Amino acid sequence: MLLAAPALFASNMVAARWAHDAALPPVFLAFGRWLIAFLILLPLAAPALLRHRQALWRGLPTLLPLAVLGMGVAVAPQYIGAQSTSATNIALIFSCSPILVALLEALIWRKPLPPLRAAGLALALGGVLVVLTRGDASVLARLAFGQGDLWVLLAATGWAFYTVLQKRLTLPAVPDGARLAAMMLGGAIALAPFAGIEAAAGATPPWTDPRLAAVLLFLAVVPSLGAYYVYGRLISRAGPATAGLSMFLVPVYAALLAWPLLGEAPQLFHAYGFVMILLGVKLASSRMRATTAGAAAPA
Length: 299
What we know:
Low-confidence stretches: 287-299
Shape: globular
Number of helices: 15
Number of strands: 0
Strand content: under 5%
Order of helices and strands: HHHHHHHHHHHHHHH
């Protein structure tokens, strides 16, 4: 799951670039993504939704913030930022979300940051920089950050809060499919007013463009149903800090996806960066597993 989740999320970046080239409204794209994902999941989740409707209603104060953060704040600003910033900047900012997760847990929940975990985070971040700079450190001096990058930073912050709160909050004891469907519906409802404002401002969807249906269906199935289900399971099994480490791998997978889709062949620096990221993730996550095991062992 640690390797699969970032691959599914990386597909979102490729689709977002395609959507930008097709002039698809970014907020409508986020809204339609979750609405279609909910409709696809509904036939499978309907029995559990009906059976656990009272538990879901009682868990609304928990599920609603998660839906707003994970399906709204972490998605729509990313699509808005893609209108005016580069894919390199998006990958660089979003790959720092594990750092944000660690800082949130350390500052708000007072969770200590062991030295080995900090070293693993630094090593993984170094691998990300190797990939994004193509092994040329001088590229960092030429990176420019603007308004689009602030939108992406907002999305990355929302994702970090979503990651931490999904483990810290007491979720209703319902099947995973029912909980995911409820949050998808909550995300679509939260985004609907903003999609309406976007349309009123003149950014209407091109209904006759077949690319609209294609990108919405792809986003609903792969980075929505697939990625969020795998990531939710990863959080429940390994904790938010370990799950957050998977985001370091997103830029690597994005580069690999760009090979067949955009004609950008992998280079040697991709291999160097990938090895650094894997070693950093293993170092940080193994330290946390050892700490957890020691805490659970009887005296």
